[in-house]
Design brief:
alpha+beta; Nucleotidyltransferase, domain 5; 8-stranded antiparallel beta sheet; 5-stranded mixed beta sheet; 9 helices; 42% helix
């Protein structure tokens, strides 16, 4: 099984190198907008069509090296494909931020001792040092590097490099612990494991924080001024960073608090955005906009690196089924008071904890060999 992570290396260029990098990134971004305009007009995203129509004009107009000219077209096409997949319509992407994609060996490489980065620019290669703390293990054998992205944020340069390596996937017979993970709004995650331990990851502070972001955006949208629109973009980026950090912390806590050989069981929430009609209007934003998929992906790759595994199961009735006697009834759950009380046996607990317990049970069933296989 292959695992890919991204190293975010901060590089340390001198003042002249920094200006040259900015100049190269600016030319690259402008070239991306040039290609974006062409694609929006023609809807042609074929490599051969773009190569024939734009390659030489990109080289001449923006003074980009040959490989960067090719990368510009791939970058623009990739952005359009993402938009078409998500929005199902042609929307012209705008490459406002400085960026630069660098193909390994042709545009970037490490020195033999892995202490210096060589980067291609409009004026040839430059060599810069970088901070490698926290990424030392990726500079040994068995790790493969891909196309890098040069990023400029708050006065600092970073090179994002994907790293791919092989890991052993956890097989069901080797599972030593199962943890059911129920995700929600009141508690972003609730885990229940083989030892009967329940951990609640409180979402109240996140709810307050996101409500503040929402109110701020509404106020800025009503103003509609250029400065308000600029502030809107900044608020959006700030909220994205906040959400990303919260999901990272939860995923890391789940992985580190459970042993190697753990099977994490999640609900398959792929249809959550289609459930807005069943959610009160005032709660729809929080319910359908929290990036459950992002948390899921972070948990998947962190778990895989720790010889753990994530599976998804059908979420039907996980919050209505008694984990003690198996009785299933909608009236078992009091959603308003967040209480589960079985109408058959009387077992009572927090409703989110019940979801985690049922997911744990379903995970345990997955680890039991099939009866036909045993025969």
């Amino acid at each position: 099984m292959q695992q890919t992570v991204t190293m975010r290396l901060r590089i340390i260029p001198d003042s002249c190198q920094a200006e040259l990098l900015k100049k190269t990134m600016k030319a690259y971004s402008e070239a991306c907008n040039y290609v974006s305009d062409y694609i929006f007009r023609t809807h042609d995203m074929t490599q051969s069509g773009l190569q024939k129509a734009l390659y030489y004009s990109i080289r001449e107009s923006f003074s980009l090296p040959a490989q960067m000219a090719q990368s510009v077209m791939r970058t623009a096409v990739s952005r359009y494909k993402t938009i078409l997949t998500n929005e199902k319509k042609w929307i012209r992407p705008d490459f406002r931020h400085l960026q630069l994609d660098l193909v390994r060996n042709r545009d970037w490489s490490f020195s033999k001792d892995m202490t210096v980065l060589s980067l291609n620019t409009l004026e040839g290669r430059i060599k810069v040092s970088f901070y490698r703390q926290g990424y030392e293990k990726y500079f040994s054998d068995g790790y493969r590097f891909g196309t890098a992205k040069l990023v400029y944020k708050r006065g600092k340069f970073y090179v994002h490099i994907p790293v791919t390596y092989e890991i052993d996937e956890l097989s069901m017979p080797d599972v030593v612990n199962v943890a059911g993970i129920d995700r929600g709004i009141r508690f972003l995650a609730v885990s229940y494991d083989d030892n009967g331990k329940t951990v609640f990851y409180d979402g109240s502070q996140v709810k307050v924080k996101r409500a503040h972001f929402k109110d701020t955006r509404k106020s800025l949208q009503e103003k509609g001024t250029p400065s308000a629109r600029k502030k809107l973009r900044e608020i959006g980026q700030r909220e994205n960073r906040y959400v990303n950090d919260v999901n990272h912390c939860i995923a890391k806590a789940l992985v580190t608090s459970n042993p190697e050989g753990t099977l994490f069981v999640l609900e398959d929430l792929s249809g959550i955005r289609g459930a807005t009609e069943r959610v009160r209007k005032g709660n729809r934003y929080l319910t359908v906009s929290w990036p459950y998929y992002d948390l899921e992906q972070k948990l998947i790759y962190k778990a895989a690196a720790n010889h753990q595994r994530v599976v998804k199961v059908d979420p039907a009735y996980t919050s209505q089924t008694c984990p003690v006697c198996g009785h299933t009834e909608r009236a078992n759950r009091d959603k308003r008071n967040h209480i589960f009380r079985c109408k058959h046996c009387g077992y009572t607990s927090n409703d989110d904890r019940i979801g985690a317990m049922n997911l744990h049970r379903m995970g345990r069933e997955l680890t039991v060999p099939d009866a036909d296989a045993r025969e």
